[in-house]
Structures
1.
Amino acid sequence: MNEIANKARAAGVVGAGGAGFPTHVKLMSAAEIYLVNGAECEPLLKVDQQLAVKYAPQLVRGLQLAMQAVGAREGIIAFKAKYVEAIAAVQPLLASNMRIHILKDIYPAGDEVITIWLATGRRVPPAALPKDVGVAVNNVLTLINLARAVDDNAPVVDRTLTISGAVSDPITVTVPIGTSLREVMARAGSITVAKPYFINGGPMMGKLLDSIDQPVTKTTGGIIVLPEDHVVVRRHRQPMQDVLAIARAVCEQCNLCTELCPRHLIGHELHPALIVRSANYRDMGKPSVLLSALTCSECAICEQWACPVNISPMRINVALKAQFRAEGARYVGDLRPLDPMAEHRLVPTSRLVTRLGIAAYNKKAPLDESSYSPAKVVLNLRQHVGVAAVPVVQVGDPVQRGQLLADIPADALGARLHASISGRVAEVTAQSITLTA
Ligand code: SF4
Ligand code: SF4
């Protein structure tokens, strides 16, 4: 393992964009291009675009380190044109082998596969990885964390997230990992609707939370509050049998979900209209049509934007993915020609915001990094891709912020976990470690 990857491993750096893939593993593969995904294309989330302004030197330093680790000849930072302050902060710091790629304000510009295509012209085949086309990708916060890990030996102990939607004071805050979401919510003033529902992530790709009495993790990018009757909430709460019944009853085979599917547009076999038809009449589809659900990015364009009769092809894909993964099934398929209209069929964010009924919530959520010291944190042992970290502390042990709490098992994929507050170990379970101040 190279020294940069080694430091990322020691610091517990993982992909902060949502997946939580251990960064040290990514830094051990060769790539020609290192791409910073600064699109942050989910409406209402305002984390990376603000961190890029405040921590521009660390972002560029993180990119330089990542490029060095993988032997990349070029570094690209993909920002939307509207992130004027971030572009102005970063541009003067770039080395001669780095450049900014300006993205239009379209969705899903931040879907990694789409960002790679837009910024490099390279298309990742279905079921392949960015490294298969010579590209490595991380988001803004991940590379800032990498710079801190290498230059300051600083472990990942804080997380920046946006609280937005139906709250009086939308805000972007940095808190110790493990802080209760309920406590973080209080930083955004009061909730302005009678029956609030909470989305973990953005309104398009986020997941409905059962409860906000759960901790912030390394991948928590935002919490969106929406009223009970909001279309996004209603879609999340729709039982699967209703999703299937509606699909069977009203699908008019208009094909719009396929024509606007970003993955289909760039040449993947993924064909949501055919998957809906195959799910309705199980024996009609080619096996590869159904299996291609495994390549769905869950961007929600098919259901939140394309379908004129409120069918949810993505929900059907998600159910199929769970079934196929349980069966150990894999999708194999070639990259097909690019749709010549591909770029023009991606969705303008402004129109998406209107369609989603969130225009009234699309406000600034200013970055507030005043320090916050919770009395208790709960640190999940698995907040990354791979196996759970193994505790190296016991109940009653005193700990200092930044101290190692749990390590990666030998020869396994995973990430280390560190104390996000100073205090004492209050509880150790198979799922988490609780610290009290
Ligand atoms: S969610 Fe729908 S539009 Fe998005 S990749 Fe999957 S099938 Fe395509
Ligand atoms: S967009 Fe809706 S109605 Fe049209 S094919 Fe897709 S699921 Fe059926």
2.
Amino acid sequence: MKDKKVFVCTECDYQHPKWVGQCPSCKKWNTMVEETYQPKIEPKNTRTSIISDFSEPVLFKDIEMPDYIRSTTGIGELDRVLGGGIVDGSVVLLAGEPGIGKSTLLMQICSQLENTVLYVSGEESKGQLKLRGERLGLYGDNTYFMTETNVDNILAQVEKLSPKVVIIDSIQTMFDPNCVSIPGSINQVKECAIKLIATSKSKCFSVLLVGHVNKEGTIAGPKVLEHMVDAVLYFEGERFQSYRIIRAIKNRFGSTNEIGVFEMTDVGLKEVPNPSEVLLSGRPTGVSGSCAVCVVEGSRPLIAEVQALVTPTTFPAPRRTSNGVDYNRLCLLLAVLEKRLGLKFSQNDIYLNVVGGLSLDEPSVDLAIALALISSIKDIPIPENVLAIGEIGLAGECRSVTDMQKRISESFRLGFNTIAVPSKSITSDLKIPNDVSLISVQSIYDTLKLFKDNK
Ligand SMILES: Nc1ncnc2c1ncn2[C@@H]1O[C@H](COP(=O)(O)OP(=O)(O)OP(=O)(O)O)[C@@H](O)[C@H]1O
Ligand SMILES: [Mg+2]
């Protein structure tokens, strides 16, 4: 009998017999994908959850304190993002573009962990794994490798070996023989993940799942996968640059703002404990259009360089490209600068770039973007020792940002002694090092002072 097809929404699981552009249930666009129809069998009194310790309701005071144990991965930058290491029995999803280094990072963890690890690859042969392991210097007397895609066979081996950590590379290649859909489809990814997570919670081993991303940059498969796991980490970076950043999007056992920075080398991923220094190396001097900024990622301040290039346009509609900063944010700042300062950006092409493949979504980067743009259009360089921090509002006002003390200390440590900050952020409890002078910026008009003095 021919399999019946159905269209399933990746966001809310709604099923529809025909393809539609907008999901009739959650109203999201372009989320319907074709699947093999599976009748939903929901026998009465059957629990459909991944947590096994169901019980009668209990009073909060009577719940026993669990003793969560964290195992360090041996890789400081990864531990930082996880909130101090992997919690035993937790499930972590590591997502990233093809070739970014997901398998490399997980294999590096294997050689650092002291407990038994089971590494399951559904994508590469044992020979390929051996080659990579040799290159990374993996000695591996605690890691079992297995090339398998059938989730039942994997769980049988888990039963036999009782590993403390199971690595699944990748969840999209796994299949559950009881589910009729093809591997990688929404149903399969969901079913396999449920089986693995349920077993990990009952047997108390940690699972690290590799997740592919689709062309929009989100994790391929059902959205519900992100809800089921304890932590979701994204591996980012420019394909052709060697720096890689791990960011936590969700973490049930730690903060979500932390980032870990790595450099891809021929012997694997190397930690970068001082990313600011790396990001500033090779900075041009005496050139217009460059401004430094200090952002705070989690608990760590990070210095980045924003570069702008403003050139007269030859196109009927001027070009705007933005790399590392939200495109709409750039358009908004251009509109503010044009309206408030009368600068003619509309007659110019504009290219904006954050050096090092970093993506900055914090509002504190606004002032540095504005300064880089003004510097480029006026062709007046900003002195190397100047750094700018602040959010810009639509009226051209400069608004205060959080963690000012941390930002000033880090900026000073890296040799910036003239820091433009929102006037509201200069409070009496701010400790300013002796050699640092602060430029108080109340509105975007105050930034013009910087260019007059340096003409
Ligand atoms: N010999 C080598 N020297 C330096 N870097 C290498 C070498 N071999 C591979 N790489 C780097 O490792 C990256 C591939 O890493 P890895 O296979 O871990 O990525 P992945 O995210 O698992 O990819 P996929 O999604 O295809 O599984 C390459 O893009 C390259 O940057
Ligand atoms: Mg891989």
